[in-house]
Amino acid sequence: MTNHEAEPLLTPAEVATMFRVDPKTVTRWAKAGKLTSIRTLGGHRRYRESEVRALLSGTPGTDSMGQ
C-alpha cells in the first residue's frame, strides 16, 4: 500500500463545494489536466485531498486554475 492509497479522496461534488463551482467544472479541470483524478473501479473520479487543498490555497509549485 502506498501513501497515495492511504490519502483521503474527495468526490467531484466535495471539490466543487470547496471551489464554489459546479461538479461538471471539476470534471473539466481533470480532463484538461489541471487537477489529477483517480478512477474508482466503478469509473467514478476521485481527487486527492492534499492536491485539492494546495490548489485552493494557491501553493507554489502546483498548476494554476487560471491557465
From TrEMBL:
Residues 9-56 form the HTH merR-type domain. GO terms for molecular function: DNA binding. NCBIfam families: excise, HTH_BldC. This is MerR family DNA-binding transcriptional regulator. CDD domains: HTH_MerR-trunc (cd04762). GO terms for biological process: regulation of DNA-templated transcription. It comes from Nonomuraea aridisoli. It holds the Pfam family HTH_17. Signal peptide: none annotated. Keywords: DNA-binding.
